[in-house]
Amino acid sequence: MSLLGIGASGLAISQTSLQVTGNNIANADQPGYSRQRVDVATMPERLQGSGFVGSGAMVNDISRVVDGFLLNQIQLDTASYNNLDIFSSNIEQLDSLLANDLSGLGSAMGNFFTTIEASAQNPASLPARQAVISEANGLAQQINTLSARVLQQSDSINEQINVLTAEVSALASGIAVLNASIENEIARGSGAEPNQLLDQRDELLRQLSELVAVTTVENNHSLNVFVGNGLPLVIRGDAARLSTEAGSRESGNLDITFVDQNGAERVITDFISGGKLGGLLEIRDEVIVDVINSLGRLAIGLAESVNRQNALGVDLDGNLGGNIFRGINEGDMPSQRVIADAANSDPDNQSLAVNITDISQLTIDDYMLVVTNLDGDANADYQVVRSSDGMEVYSGSGTGGAEVINVGDGFEIAIDGLTAANVAEGDRFYIRPTRSGGADISTAITRGQELAYAVPIVTDAKTANTGQGTISSGQMLDLVDDSDLDFSPSVYTSAGELNGEVLVRFTSATDYSVYANSDATAPELLFSSTIIAGQANQLFDNDPADANYIGFQAEITGTPDAGDEFTINFNANGSSDNRNAVALAQLRTTGIFDGGSSNFEKAYGNLIQELGTKTAQSQINRDAAQSLLFQSQANRDSLSGVNLDEEAANLIKFEQSYNASAQVVSIARQIFDTLLDSLR
After folding, report:
1. CA 629 to CA 231: how far, in whole Å?
2. 533-560: per-residue pLDDT in tens?
3. Among 475, 586, 601, 448, residue whose Cα is nearest residue 117
4. Helix ranges restricted to H, 322-372
């Protein structure tokens, strides 16, 4: 190539370099823009005279300065940070809601029991009793409100999931369009890459990573994008989409579905991770579920224990106590605790009920009942699996008709005959024993007179006694009637109401007999037993399975003489009796949950503590993920970002190169002119 051609090639290279540098400067603040550079190739040498002489250079390519590893790391860190960020912001809301003195339950529970303690000081006072009813109403409404607020947050999350899945679909479509455009441009440009389109695709992929974790595979200059457990969201120029549908396991929740290019749809909720979608699913399906179940268990335990204790007393009207709160197995509550999978063989004719049987064994777990065939016969068999750990808690053969499954975690499942006849192997039912407890609790009484502050029994010692024995005031263990006892003589006229007095007669200082004394002229022997003189001795058994269980308990202390008698009667006029009121107040510190190891305040405190720990840990994890994302972005920017100082230096360099190449062209022209002049 001539000197003129060499100079012209230098001019072209310098001009292109100046254009690329100017473009870098113009796009310095554009998100996702990658710095471009001119790749220059040396032209082939030519043998000329005594050696090889260069023939200039040419622009080989205009390429982006990128590193695939750094881009991939940004995608991973973006998905991780956005997952933790949205999880952290949501769990902070929950923590603030439950731990706050105004919106939480701590103050409301404390006020309820404090008011009972105050009214126990004057059990006949109607204003004091009415204050207890007012606090009970307030506590129930506070639990209702708190549960509703938590569910509102869950509803908000579902709305966000619906919006984000649409955004994922739009981004996937955009990536597919860019894939097709990139392939076309590369083919049209004989292999030259369209840098702007590549940057746009990388930016869309980064935005997609904000929403959900994805993996990518390059295929013929296109990027195939996979989501969940390897489902193809984008294949070259074709895009699938994400959608939502009503959840099959939880009323009100949305499941995420994958819709392929042919319109086939499948649920992939359990496979979604990373990004905002993954964080929202985690907070909804793990944290919120545990919180609402914990509130439900607290409400169920409160209602059942308070109702049970009030039932062991007598109110101001002389009646045995009723429910203060709505009963935990009333109305449609049991059926609301079960959801039949929409894919079951005949969900419209399947109905199960869950009855709470033992609040001390109740957990915050959900369960799944699966219809199986364990023994090969025609009858449906059942397995119950706990969701939290996947442990099987029940497995048994069905009878083919109505039956009750005692799961053992504080509840039982009632299967009616119609359901048993309309289930098929593989049918599933989602059991949620405590889910609706917070919404269901409400007060069942409005009159303070209905608070049963007195104990149904009253004890006394005969005035003719000569010994030093004394009898305690007595306490009720349970409401029983004659059918619950092993005695043939009648003790009760109805559950909890004695049929006359029960007489305790000592035949020596240590031996005594107990009589049903409804007819004072002919007492009927119930049983005989002994005491140890000088110490407290219980007169009856405490276990309903024991022979001498009678439904209440009293103690003899001191040393009675032979012939001393003590009586136990129905407490028909107990307006000044506060024994059951004291027992109601003591429920505040009584172990109710976890096998009797946790009371109400401890259970709620544990919930707040666990939520606070998760909140603090999520904040630490979020900050760490943000730091990693900043570092990854900084690494990418140090390589691919536009440095204005560097570009300014390049402008000077390429300007000088352009001037030098122009000088080469000028000299070549002068040489050519000289040659022409010599030939004239």
Report:
1. 26
2. 889 999 999 999 898 999 999 999 999 9
3. 586
4. 333-336
